[in-house]
Specification:
mainly alpha, about 475 residues, 2 domains
Length: about 475
């Protein structure tokens, strides 16, 4: 079974030589290629992708890093395609107003699950990637904090939903009650993915990170065909998809944990919290992951405006999703590389891929937006075209910053991207409070793009300033592992 596979092959270094030291990547002879994982992780049919990845030509001319990156990009595209399907069906079934309520209700558990883990999933990926044999100790150390987080966050979720929805129609309140159970499973899903990513099990990781969206899309198609166009039905199928994906993911992560086989000490919980908290806002940024722009629209503008903005944002997500697929490979790859020069060479390569792919996709979508939005979402969403074009510019800049942030975090510098994210958020909030009531969702898109540009500039400045110091001196989080 692919869910209980051993670790996927770790990417090689830039000079093609094996790495030395405590980090022990498996050889390519042991790389599993399970058909079920490939089928879920790619929009290409199962046998076609499997045949492509198993050919001698591919193994000879594509390095493990490139093969893993291609699979990750395919998984990202599959997930984004599933999100596009659910977004289109949701808009057609519910209309702009109820689509806005759906976005607001589902956003609450998502934001809490990202912030409430306090960065522990980021730390798990980093430390497990550096020495996989510590996985069992890391797993045992996070069980109690994870249970505490699930309990506390569930209570916070109830309070937030009550405050946000106190004056909405009763059917909306009843529908929102369905999401109360989903938050603990979303937290568990984050932890499971963190272990899979750190273990280098990219086939399982890519399949399972896409699984909530794919399952949701399948269920939404069934609901659409049955004509059950009610918000409580849509929320119910979203909960079912999220719970199912979480159960599969934590099972896969648990069964793949290696027994300790070295004398290296596993990182303590305080050390993991220290790393995770520094990296938290840089990875789970208010602009990108927490969707701060949508939260502010929900507070400042009517639900109809939020529904239009969500449609525009759905188009703008594609460049970012491509970049996300690269980042999922870049972070553990650089964390498992001990040579500073090789880390910087990889960083330049990842940034080049990002600029070329995200920029090209953004240009194509901007040109096609007047056709895509009314055709797929309906003519009542036509006014979101200009907003989508503005957001595509900001999405591309966010993508470049995300990859650079993932790379420097993999070098052990957990704080740089967080500083850039906080700076961009401080720029965004006052701008939206002033602009949104006057210019509507187009003003919000302009504020979003300006904040993304400011954050990228800050991160580039920090990276250039700190590069020499990071090359000469190991990260504070590296020393305990090199023992």
């Amino acid at each position: 079974m692919w869910l209980v596979e051993k670790s996927d092959e770790m990417p090689d270094t830039d000079d093609g030589k094996e790495q030395s030291g405590p980090r022990q990547p498996l050889s390519s002879e042991n790389e599993p290629r399970q058909a079920v994982a490939v089928a879920l992780a790619s929009p290409i049919p199962q046998m076609g992708m499997r045949a492509l990845l198993d050919t001698r030509w591919v193994n000879q001319y594509l390095s493990p890093l490139k093969r893993n990156a291609i699979t990750s990009l395919a998984a990202s595209m599959l997930g984004q395609t599933a999100l596009a399907v659910t977004g289109i069906l949701g808009a057609r079934m519910l209309g702009p107003t109820n689509r806005g309520y759906l976005a607001l209700i589902s956003l609450v558990p998502f934001v809490l699950s990202q912030l409430g883990t306090l960065g522990l999933p980021l730390a798990i990926t980093y430390f497990v990637a550096r020495d996989r044999s510590t996985g069992a100790d890391v797993f045992r150390s996070i069980v109690r904090p994870a249970i505490t987080q699930c309990t506390g966050l569930s209570l916070v979720q109830v309070v937030v939903l009550v405050l946000l929805l106190h004056d909405v129609p009763t059917p909306i309140k009843l529908a929102a009650s369905l999401v109360v159970i989903v938050l603990p499973f979303m937290v568990v899903h984050e932890y499971g993915l963190a272990f899979l990513q750190g273990q280098g099990r990219y086939h399982a990781f890519n399949a399972l990170r896409s699984s909530p969206y794919v399952l949701y899309a399948i269920l939404m198609i069934a609901v659409f065909l049955l004509g059950a166009d009610r918000i409580h039905v849509v929320l119910a199928v979203w909960v079912i998809a999220s719970v199912s994906a979480a159960i599969l993911t934590v099972n896969a992560a648990r069964l793949g944990i290696q027994k300790k086989c070295t004398q290296l000490e596993a990182p303590t919980l305080p050390v993991m919290y220290a790393f995770g908290l520094k990296a938290l806002l840089g990875s789970v940024g208010p602009l990108e992951a927490l969707r701060l722009d949508q939260l502010l629209i929900g507070v400042l503008l009517p639900p109809h405006q939020l529904g239009l903005y969500v449609a525009a944002a759905a188009v703008s997500y594609f460049p970012r999703v491509l970049v996300q697929g690269i980042g999922f490979i870049a972070y553990p790859h650089i964390a498992s590389t001990s040579n500073a020069a090789a880390q910087w060479r990889s960083t330049r390569r990842f940034l080049l891929w990002t600029v070329l792919m995200a920029g090209s996709v953004a240009l194509l979508l901007a040109a096609a937006a007047p056709v895509i939005i009314p055709s797929f979402f309906g003519p009542e969403f036509s006014s979101a075209v200009v907003t989508a074009r503005i957001l595509l510019i900001g999405s591309t800049m966010l993508g470049v910053r995300r990859i650079l942030g993932d790379c420097v975090r993999g070098m052990g510098s957990a704080l740089d991207n967080t500083v850039a994210e906080v700076a961009s958020s401080l720029c965004l909030v006052p701008a939206l409070i002033v602009i949104a009531p006057r210019w509507g969702i187009e003003g919000v898109a302009l504020g979003f793009t300006g904040a993304a540009a400011f954050g990228l500039m800050i991160l580039l400045t920090l990276t250039a300033r700190d590069r020499k110091g990071r090359s000469a001196k190991p990260s504070e989080f590296e020393e305990p592992l090199d023992g």
